[in-house]
Specification:
Keywords: ATP-binding, Nucleotide-binding, Transport. Belongs to the ABC transporter superfamily. It comes from Streptomyces californicus. This protein is α/β, with parallel strands linked by helices and about 325 residues long. Helix content is about 30%, strand content about 25%. Helix 5 links the parallel strand 6 and strand 7. The protein is elongated and about 75 Å long. The two termini are about 35 Å apart. The protein binds adenosine-5'-triphosphate.
């Protein structure tokens, strides 16, 4: 368990992390999300005692990092894959870490094998590709067989097989009861990996919730119906009290109704359906919606230099976008 309490970090006048409080629980993968510059790396660095907080605290299983006598046995981290000594071999990089934490030499071979670097163990790490460096960083995090693991952008530079491997590794480590805390900008990957999310923007906590609840609360979900008899279907829906939004190609969108009830309704009226599907926003869409007001760095299209600033959080679909019977026709 990691407990972050009112953690604050100022760099001069810049408040990078602002009164942040949350807990990272064991047995699940907790994703750490935020736009560029939100304060994720700074928070992770303070969790590992690599930066001093301006105020607030971080507890690792009830203790401050400095109180852990052999920290790698409690918490392993991949923060900066390039932090390894480039002139040393992968094996020697890990051996130095192992020796300073009284970890048996045999564990070095074990973790090199786990991350798939056994064949290049004796090669200098400065010749490693981005993906190999990332694997070496992961090996160093696993070295002490810790109960808590933190990964900052772990899939950076990994090929699809590597991404699949790290996803399964994190899930397997969580299922063993370990605490897994991971940041990533790759939303599709995060959606497949994390059970719980901590979302920050401009150093402040925006959400601390399950993946399912986050998507549900920050996006619109509706049922999509496509029918060659769509005009009749629309009238039937209206008669039965549903609000159907018409979109191109005879597609109807209905908020607040299940696929089961709409399918049965169509059957009762002997209407042909070519599509009956539940539409739910992706994590990426929900994330963009939630963080719209706290993105610091915006790209501006050259063709549209006077683009409107982003809407504040929650303003993207209008106030009542998720109210039952909404006639808002925008897709999620
Ligand atoms: N050593 C430093 N000195 C001054 N400002 C810093 C320093 N480190 C970070 N910052 C600032 O603090 C803010 C948070 O940075 P941080 O790297 O923690 O964000 P992040 O969420 O990890 O971003 P990214 O997703 O781009 O990696 C940024 O505005 C950054 O410029």
């Amino acid at each position: 368990m990691i407990e972050v309490e009112r953690l604050t970090k100022r760099f001069g006048r810049k408040v990078a992390v602002d009164q942040l409080s949350f807990q990272v629980r064991p047995g699940i993968v907790t994703g750490f999300l935020g736009p560029n510059g939100a304060g994720k790396s700074t928070t992770m660095r303070m969790m590992l005692d690599l930066d001093n907080p301006t105020s607030g605290s971080v507890r690792i299983d009830g203790r401050h990092y400095r109180e852990l006598s052999e920290p790698l046995k409690y918490i392993g981290a991949l923060l900066d894959a390039k932090a390894m000594h480039g002139g040393r071999s992968a094996y020697n990089n890990l051996l130095c870490l192992a020796q300073s934490n009284r970890i048996p030499r045999g564990r070095v071979d074990e973790v090199l094998d786990m991350v798939g670097l056994a064949a290049v163990a004796k090669k200098k790490s400065k010749g490693f590709s981005l993906g190999m460096g990332q694997r070496l960083g992961i090996a160093s995090a696993l070295l002490g067989d810790p109960e808590i693991l933190m990964f900052d952008e772990p899939v950076n530079g990994l090929d699809p097989e590597g991404i699949h491997w790290i996803r399964n590794l994190m899930k397997a480590l969580a299922s063993e009861g370990r605490t897994i805390f991971v940041s990533s900008h790759l939303m599709s990957e995060m959606a497949l990996t994390a059970d719980h999310l901590i979302v920050i923007g401009q150093g402040r906590l925006l959400a601390d919730t399950s993946m399912a609840a986050f998507i549900q609360e920050n996006s619109r979900s509706y049922t999509r119906l496509r029918s060659p008899q769509w005009e009749r279907l629309r009238d039937v829906l209206h008669q039965e009290g549903y609000t159907a939004v018409e979109t191109a190609g005879g597609v109807l969108e209905i908020d607040g109704a299940s696929t089961e009830e709409l399918g049965e309704l169509a059957a009762r009226h002997q209407l042909v359906l070519h599509e009956l599907s539940s539409q739910r926003a992706s994590l990426e869409e929900a994330f963009m919606q939630m963080t719209a007001g706290s993105v610091e760095y915006h790209a501006h299209s050259e063709r549209d230099p006077g683009a409107e600033p982003p809407p504040p959080p929650g303003a993207g679909w209008g106030e009542n976008w998720n109210a039952p019977g909404s006639t808002d026709g925008k897709g999620a």
